[in-house]
Amino acid sequence: MSLHVEISHQRDVLLVRLDGELDHHSATEVRERIDREWSKGIYGHLVLNLSKLTFMDSSGLGVILGRYRRISEMDGKMVLCAVQPSIHRLFELSGMLKILPFCEDEQTALNVCGVAS
């Protein structure tokens, strides 16, 4: 299976929805698309909606951790939302649950980033 990446925004929040498998085959594309959009300089925060992400390996973890570092260095917030149980377990095992905020749904994540509904 492949990965579909949907990118949009709400105010200064870059919103990325991932659908499919984030693995070594798709990690570079995801990183480049997020970085290209982020480099426009109009966003302050990032929300990753993982509701349709069915698989992720260490390459995917690396992409997410790398984006978190970049955004944190710029005093932005990065929030993950709607994470499937198997993917959530991977975050838990990797220790990333300790540094990344998780929300149940996209609207809550946007609220955390300062976007009122």
Automatic annotation (TrEMBL):
Superkingdom of this protein's organism: Bacteria
Domain STAS: 3-113
Pfam families: STAS
UniProt keyword list: Phosphoprotein, Sporulation
PANTHER family reported in the protein's UniProt record: ANTI-SIGMA FACTOR ANTAGONIST TM_1081-RELATED, ANTI-SIGMA FACTOR ANTAGONIST TM_1081-RELATED-RELATED
Its job: In the phosphorylated form it could act as an anti-anti-sigma factor that counteracts SpoIIAB and thus releases sigma f from inhibition.
Protein name: Anti-sigma F factor antagonist
